[in-house]
Predict the structure of Catalase.
Amino acid sequence: SGPETFSPTGLPTGADQAAMAQDGAYLTTAQGGRLYESDHSLKAGSRGPVLLQDHHLREKITHFDHERIPERVVHARGAAAHGVFRGYGTASQVTKAAFLAKDVETPVFVRFSTVLGSRGSADTVRDTRGFATKFYTSEGTFDLVGNNIPVFFIQDAIKFPDVIHAGKPHPDREIPQAQSAHDTFWDFVTLHTEATHHTLWNMSDRGIPRSFRMMEGFGVHTFRLVDAEGATTLVKFHWKPKLGVHSMVWEEAQITGGMDPDFHRRDLADAIEAGAYPQWELGAQTFPDTPEQTFEGIDLLDPTNIVPEELAPVQPVGLLTLTANPSNFFAETEQVAFHPGHLVPGIDITDDPLLAGRLFSYLDTQISRLGGPNFAQIPINRPHTPVNDMLRDGMHQTAVHRGTAPYRPNSLDGGCPFLAGADTSAYIEVPVPVPAAEKVRKAPASFEDHFSQPRRFWLSMSPVEREHIIAAYTFELNKCYEQAIKERALQVLANIDPDLCGQVATGLGLPAPKPTETLAEVDPSPALSQVGRTWPVD
Ligand code: HEM
């Protein structure tokens, strides 16, 4: 079934459709009892008192009282759309994933988001954007839960609560909202210099996209592809917008945010309604799966690194087209539950320590956000394949499971014994060896270079892009109250580039410090100016 045939009920049968349609000739209670009036409470006389026995009043108010669910702990503000993904078949050389095979069409649901703002915040703030895609494949659901920035602030999931606490509003007065104007944000990213690369992307034009339709997307982590023979290849996923990459300028973002804080969600919905279906190509940067898991000296398990496209070109593997708006925001956009561990045969994880924590976090948070363990039964989260999972009961269970023996093998219900290892169409973890090592709480030495990639990014910028970056750092740092934080931020900038540091220092009215690190030798050739830039528009 394609996206146009998506049914919010998930069960397009007579009784269920009628119940959900809410368009009968008369109003009813939740039990289907017919009402003659819904505008007045039941009272003893027209001037009251109101009677407790009015079940309709209590049912209506009680349900309203419980209409809200917790917003996402991060990425609370989002907008989404249905669409279709068509594989080019080019990836079939390196992965057996069925949805990437030539001309296979797979329904998808994509949710774009900001990270730090609450559900009612403005679209146009300077922030990272989420770009999460649910592929309802013939082999089960695959989620690519990415961002519009190819690197992350931290290298280990244990720091995630810390970086988010630093970026969210101050605990005392709940201001400010965005990551701008925050002593805690700048305190964190200057004390944790692995955050330098992501912060620089945020301060660039990438932090204020023109439209969701004009953003790149990145899987960020390195994943592992597996072909039919079991051979493996490391991969980084990229989404390349057919409309190219475009940003707002800061003043434009401010005015737009004031006049239309819903600018991005309106832009997405309007474009789809008008038939201007947004498109992205899914691309893959592939690397040999060597025991070191490095490429050209870059540690592929460090999510603060990119691999420049000059060194590993992004190869197109399929086309995503968004074709339909959600019919109900709550049912679809709000209740959708992505998870980086929703994988299909042919795609596996690597040992990136940030990814490891994500694999735990999403299911955990969704149990509390979506009220128990059965949210995979919510229509938007149902796979488009049969489910036979032996999971039973629990809060909000809607399935009426059959049989008496929810375990396998059993001698009562029969059928479906495990064919241990024999079912080659199943998802099988790649048997990569785990090194014999002692337990430690520390990062590898290869995670220690925090400045050469930011320097490469800075040097690849055009003069006007550099002006924007300088203005962004100057504006944001000027909002910090603590002088020590500004000075530490200037030290970080000095380790990226003296010109960047000098100009921001002038804007802050502070002296520019000398670098404390040797500036990396980076080739500022014109080719490098294309690093992470626009995709050719055809
Ligand atoms: C949402 C945790 C890193 C992309 C979320 C949510 C949590 C979370 C708890 C809310 C999920 C929900 O309520 O349904 C984490 C942790 C991370 C991490 C613990 C690191 C240790 C990342 C990274 C990316 C990312 C590196 C990008 C590659 C997203 C996106 C969403 C999200 C796009 C929104 C999904 C949606 O639209 O519903 N994350 N995250 N996160 N995260 Fe992460």
